[in-house]
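Database export, one record per block. Field names are fixed; values are copied verbatim from the stored entry.
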Amino acid sequence: MSMSIQPKEYNDLKEYWDYQRKIQYNKEQIFSIADKFEGRTYNDLGPIHIDEVKKMLWDKLTPAEYEEPPEEWVPKDEKYRLWSEDRLDTTKLSPKARKVVLRASHRVREVPNILND
């Protein structure tokens, strides 16, 4: 049984599903940020569990601050995936950003005093 949102269901309640997906996108972003702080958050009583950090961050975000999900985004939770995203393996998708390659170093070597202007 497919857990994804089917075309008829999506078309009947397009605004609802778009908003639910928007919430899910923002939640995934916040939780991803929070995961980077695992083991490094403390209060007066000692370490804070990462789930508490996630809840604190999520509760501070207002709906007005939600960002629109990019077109290529595929939700981790299958129940928010569209029928066309159902067969995608999110672990095999290419990363969103391109690798940065610095190509200016050869110019500095060619003209040694270029940085001394």
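Remark 1: Residues 7-116 form one domain.
Remark 2: Helices lie at 7-12, 14-35, 50-60, 105-110.
End of record.
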